[in-house]
Amino acid sequence: MAETASGRISYVEHGSGPVALFVHGVLLNGFLWRNQLAHLGDVRRCIAVDLLAHGDTEIEATQDVSVTANAKMLAQFLDALKIGRVDLVGNDSGGGIAQIFTALYPEHVRSLTLTDCDVHDNWPPEAFKPFLAMAAAGGLPGAVNAVLADKSVYRSPQALGPAYEHPEQVADDTIETYLRPHVRSRQRTHDLERFLAAFDCGHTVAVEARLKALKTPTLVVWGTDDVYFDVKWSHWLAGTIPGTRRRVEFEGARLFFPEERWQQFNEELQAHWKTAAELEPREKTEQEETHGARR
DSSP E strands: which ranges in the chain? Predict the structure, then answer.
């Protein structure tokens, strides 16, 4: 746990070297990144956090749990661990949070990787709105408990089946790890309800101008069969962020491909981190030269 002004932030880490920070999305937790932590520890100190209102992170009952509040929490988290810069990786709403974090705290980000995620005014995506409406109507506790009682519901087209290329392969233990924290107490369920109620594209639209000025080396990796986040949003990101070095499509992949296609994704991450490291000295030199010319 890391003690911050936003609460006691739960995280797991593995490996050594420069820090890579992984940010999950709604309903899940840091367990999403287990295959990144397990297999990239030889090149990075890999850290996966549990967001506010998720996993084992502990927060106050009345605090802000919006995506911008989560971005600010990440800055506090890095300060608490005395970490300066990270290779930031985000998925789903965690990708939206990663955009906000990088826009607000570019000095903390060595490189940025965005996978299928909330972008600009596509937050929440149309396909997720029925779930939000159900939660707003008070149905969240019953829905989560029903899924935990019958894990096949999680894999169904009516639940999170569409987020996976092979939902039938999602293990019961994985579902338990993701969802059980949300019903450990009524307060934890209410925290998730508040997180969902705070979904608003205003958070990402507000940082558009900063993204357009962002020179941080950026990788955009997108699944082509995602009902939530169309491939067009990967083009929007690549066209908006001038630091984008590469945009990659995983044919047939869906939202949670960092879990399903981890080998392929890890290869892209390692190549991106290597490129970003090679660019860094040159960019520093260019900045120093520009600064000298202005003096």
Answer: 2-4, 7-9, 11-14, 19-23, 45-49, 86-92, 109-117, 218-223, 244-250
